[in-house]
Amino acid sequence: MSHGVTINEVPSGVKPPVEISAGLPVYTGTSPLVDETAVNVPKVFYTLAEFVAVFGPVQDDFDSWTLHEAAKRHFMVDSVAPIVCINVLDPDKADHILEVTDESHILDDDGQAVCQIYGEPETLAVLKSTVVVKVSAVEKTLGTDYTLAFDADGFLVITRVSTGSIGEGATITVDYTYLDPTGVIADDIIGGYAGGVYTGLEVIQQVYPTLRLVPGFICAPKWSEEPTVAARMTTIAASINGSFRAMALVDVSTDVAEIPTYADAPGWKSDNGFDEIDMAVGWPLFKNGDDAYHASTVLACVANVTDAAHDGIPYASPSNKAATGTAAVLDDGTEVALGRTEANALNAQGIVTVLNGFYGWRVWG
């Protein structure tokens, strides 16, 4: 046993997360890859820095990068950890990648060029291992002629090595492959097991054997609105490794065309089979500043914060507990102003929501 005082410095603006021992959230979704081996494997993160080292700087485009929604909410808003993330974007799947050839750049005064097709946010997800740099059709050598590194925004930067063969202000051409989240479909999230390989949600069966952690919440923000995904989440939650039981946190659609008012949510929930015992159903989105989080993500965070406040013992309900945010919204930004009567009506139909009352925003139900 050690004694004394230990100081652990973290960047200002990012609070050290409170660690929870119950209700471990496992998120399945999409992310750029700094670590290109992080495909269909469970990765546990206790800090924002650990997440960034594998999946890059946290992005605000939660529709493309759904795992970044989880990271931002857990590490930068609610400061609670750990989380487990399973990325399904697979460089070996043709539908998950796009290729760029002979992209031309003139090196700037710092001898750098950024791999970025302007207007294409997916180019955040350049696969470093695929980059080929040429000058006058002659291929250059990584490490000798140039280096590669991701910048603070997640873009891949090429930097000439002064002792190499790329001259100052040179024009270079670049080939590379980048991940395309628009190619992911519900079946990629659902995944499966074949030939000894787990993919998608089925990777949850590997969390305990590889990490010695017990899943508590099964989450797939954005994708859990798909009935087939929600159904598989719930089936897995009912029996993990033949030993453990978890809760699937799923979302009612926030498409304004499908659910223009709160009164339409219960019917959608019933019609799509969101009524299983191992399922907690949330609606709508919950904004914090410019970011809109799925109710399932917010519920996981508030439940974790609640458990942490009770010595890690998951006996207190997250209902009526504080939730950091500024508005409840639909996917087009339309605000949803619920009173207690409306929120209770949703609760009566098995839907968790958020309510702004005398004591501020609360998870309700």
How far apart are the termini? 43 Å
Mean pLDDT: 93
Number of helices: 8
Taken from the alpha-carbon principal axes, the silhouette is: elongated
Q: Strand order across the biggest sheet? A: 3-5-2-15-16-17-21-22
Poorly predicted regions are 1-9
Structural class by secondary-structure content: alpha/beta
Radius of gyration, Cα only, in angstroms? 22 Å
Write down the secondary-structure element order.
EEEHHEEEEEEEEEHEEHEHEHEEEHEHEE
Number of strands: 22
Describe the sheet with the most strands: 8 strands, mixed
Question: Residue share in helices?
Answer: 10-25%
Strand residue percentage: 25-35%
What is the structure about, briefly put?
By secondary structure, this protein is of the alpha/beta class.
Task: Describe what this molecule looks like in 3D.
By secondary structure, the protein is of the alpha/beta class. Helix content is 20%, strand content 27%. It contains 8 helices and 22 strands. The strands form 6 sheets. The protein has an 8-stranded mixed β-sheet, with helices on both faces. Strands 6-12-8-9 form a 4-stranded antiparallel β-sheet, with no helix packed on it. The protein has a 3-stranded antiparallel β-sheet with strand order 7-11-10, with no helix packed on it. It is elongated. The two termini are 43 Å apart.
